[in-house]
Amino acid sequence: MPKRSSSLATQLLATLEERGHRSTSPRRAVVNAIAGQNKHFTAEQLRDQLPGVGRATIYRSLRLLVESGVLCRVLLEEGDLHYQLSHRGHHHHLLCVECGSSQDLLGCDIEDLLHTVSSAHQFQLSGHWLEVYGKCHDCMDRPAVPV
Amino acid sequence: MPKRSSSLATQLLATLEERGHRSTSPRRAVVNAIAGQNKHFTAEQLRDQLPGVGRATIYRSLRLLVESGVLCRVLLEEGDLHYQLSHRGHHHHLLCVECGSSQDLLGCDIEDLLHTVSSAHQFQLSGHWLEVYGKCHDCMDRPAVPV
DNA sequence: ATAGTTAATGATACCAAGTCTCTTTAACGG
DNA sequence: CCGTTAAAGAGACTTGGTATCATTAACTAT
Ligand SMILES: [Mn+2]
Ligand SMILES: [Mn+2]
Ligand SMILES: [Zn+2]
Ligand SMILES: [Zn+2]
User: Fold this and answer.
1) In this complex, do B129 and A127 lie within 8 Å of one another by their Cβ atoms?
2) pLDDT per position in chain A (147 positions), as tens?
3) What is the CA radius of gyration of chain B?
4) Interface membership of B131 toward A (CB under 8 Å)
5) What integer pLDDT is reported at residue A110 of this predicted model?
6) Which-ligand-closest: CA of A93?
7) Å from the B19 CA to the D21 C1'
8) Contact A127, A89 (CB under 8 A)
9) B23 with B15: CB under 8 angstroms?
């Protein structure tokens, strides 16, 4: 039996439909899989979970969802690109390098600071990219995992 | 006749030698080419300029120079990885999206701010990645280049 | 100066992460 | 129900890089 769609999945799909995209069954499979992730994930992880969906379709869906603002790209310290559900609007992440969890960083003062610094350099700010790496609260207590 | 080495190139090579790496002729060619760049560049650009040097050697040299702290990686807005000469130590860049120039951002308050924000989230900061995009002073005045 | 040791090179195969092309399918609007 | 057109999927291709390994050449010690 097909896994039941979460309301989150329904919501993601609705976002796509509002933007004029069709509700196809591969697309529903993709948003369901995404809704089931509990932390950031890669395109390839999604592909492993959806062997029946074409590779191009997965990448196309990810692009649409990023463009719609419901997914955001997350760059890990090693350079790997992951995705995760986004709180709409620009924000950043505190990424735990230990357990892979992430916390959103909303309404911090970075924008103001960057504006100040930029104008000091006679630079007209238009965008920025920031990722913050470290250990989350849980992993701070826990002794480091032996490799 | 072989292009004369700039003192910058000599300096780069010296850094490598100090770290126990041999002064080979492909390596000299690479540091010379790097010393001749006037802005950030990609590995492939370097390759085009050095058709006689093997691909692996170019990537290996870039890695060594990054590890030595004399080159830094720069992530452009579109996701392309570039390199540029580094002022040793951690710093960031103001990248002009118009002309491709970049200004180093030293001693800005970002570290302090991130520490404040992190501890507010009970997060133990260990690193971060920041790139700032916009228009440099020159390009602010100039009307946008027609595509 | 010579020889020995070992780092470094480069040819080539390989790989990861995507993108492009093109034919076929199916969603949706009328 | 039909027609239009978006979307899918197969598969070739691309980009940016890494791994392997036989050969070469820097440096070191004599
Ligand atoms: Mn986010
Ligand atoms: Mn720099
Ligand atoms: Zn953690
Ligand atoms: Zn500029």
Assistant:
1) no
2) 456 788 999 999 999 999 999 999 999 999 999 999 999 999 999 999 999 999 999 999 999 999 999 999 999 988 899 999 987 777 899 999 999 999 988 877 788 899 999 999 999 999 999 999 999 999 999 876 654
3) 18
4) yes
5) 85
6) 1
7) 26
8) no
9) no
3-state secondary structure chain B: CCCCCCHHHHHHHHHHHHCCCCCCHHHHHHHHHHHCCCCCECHHHHHHHCCCCCHHHHHHHHHHHHHCCCEEEEECCCCCEEEEECCCCCCEEEEECCCCCEEEECCCCHHHHHHHHHHHCCCEEEEEEEEEEEECHHHHHCCCCCC
Q: How far is A79 from chain B (nearest CA, A)?
A: 10
User: Which nucleotide's C1' is closest to B26 (Cα)?
Assistant: C9
Q: What pLDDT sits at residue B1?
A: 46
Interval B93-139: pLDDT, tens: 999 999 999 998 887 778 889 999 999 999 999 999 999 999 999 99
Tell which residue, A129, A56, A140, A66, has the closest CA to residue A92: A129
Residues 6 or more apart whose CB falls under 8 angstroms from that of A139 comprise A96, A98, A99
Radius of gyration of chain A (CA): 18
Q: Say what the pTM is.
A: 0.88
